[in-house]
Write a structure and sequence with these properties.
globular, single chain, six-stranded antiparallel β-sheet, 289 residues, alpha+beta
């Protein structure tokens, strides 16, 4: 904060506050408000501290933080009154999937729909400029009270909206590995080696909360009809899932182990969706645990 006070011109307000994230994770969020701007990206110091604790110098960590701020800081204010009138944000309401048990405290405060061992929650997607990306506002019970709508009504609106404003993206993981291998200066045969199972990554066009694509109308049905098979669903994160057409042998246990290994080694704690694979039945057109 001392360095930022020196490097960011006045007028400014710099503060740190604890921010509750997915799965009960609490992070230390740094915000910088410049020139009376009423919105700022939140820089989570925990991730920068991880770099510092792994041997990156303080100066390099600080320069990275400062660069991230300048790259993502907004160019204009937002009018908070737009959120009080539901008609203003009706077409921006979307849904996402989170784990039910890991978010019980949060779910007491927000409208939600139970889905297997997960929960569907709702947010407002705010379109920002290219440099800033997208900002979201999680919808709480207090918002529904102000708007005078029910959770059921919100769910229906979110179902219709999400598939339109965040259309699905489905691609073959082996194609991605092959393309990645072709870009390497010194090709690594392990990169392009096909996975032991056919795998398809399902997310949305922004890669934001893409696991919710599982809820899109007829999406899984059409995929199963095209592949002529049932399939496993690997919840690789809250942002994407992996579809694995079923094989003659039962690989559920091995795939669930894969999910847990990815959770433990590759994901931030607040990005974890679940710890096991799911199963989609083509005959029943439903997902089961």
């Amino acid at each position: 904060m001392e360095r930022l006070e020196h490097d960011i011109p006045d007028p400014k307000r710099i503060s740190i506050q604890q921010v509750s994230k997915n799965n009960g994770i609490v992070l230390d969020g740094l915000t910088i408000m410049e020139n009376d701007c009423n919105i700022s990206p939140t820089l989570y110091l925990n991730y920068y501290y991880d770099s510092y604790s792994h041997g990156i110098s303080f100066n390099d960590v600080y320069q990275s933080l400062l660069s991230d701020y300048h790259r993502h800081k907004p160019s204009q204010n937002i009018d908070p009154s737009f959120f009080t009138e539901f008609d203003n944000i009706r077409d921006k309401i979307a849904m996402k999937l989170i784990h039910y048990e890991r978010n019980k405290e949060l779910l007491e405060k927000v409208p939600h729909i139970r889905f297997l061992d997960l929960a569907i929650v709702f947010y407002c997607l705010i379109a920002m400029d290219f440099a800033t990306g997208n900002a979201t506002i999680l919808i709480h019970h207090s918002h529904l009270k102000n708007w005078n709508i029910t959770t059921t009504e919100l769910f229906q609106i979110a179902k219709d909206n999400t598939q339109k404003i965040l259309p699905e993206k489905l691609y073959d993981m082996n194609d991605v590995l092959y393309e990645l291998s072709g870009r390497l200066t010194h090709p690594d045969p392990t990169v392009s080696r096909p996975s032991p199972y056919p795998m398809f990554v399902l997310t949305n066009e922004t890669n934001l909360f893409g696991a919710a694509c599982l809820l899109y109308k007829d999406l899984l049905k059409h995929f199963s009809e095209k592949s002529q098979t049932d399939f496993y669903i690997l919840p690789s994160s809250i942002h994407e899932v992996i579809l694995v057409p079923t094989l003659e042998n039962d690989c559920y246990g091995e795939l669930s182990d894969m999910v847990r290994e990815v959770n433990d080694s590759q994901l931030m704690d607040d990005e974890i969706l679940s710890t096991h694979a799911y199963y989609y039945s083509r005959r029943k057109n439903e997902i089961t645990m």
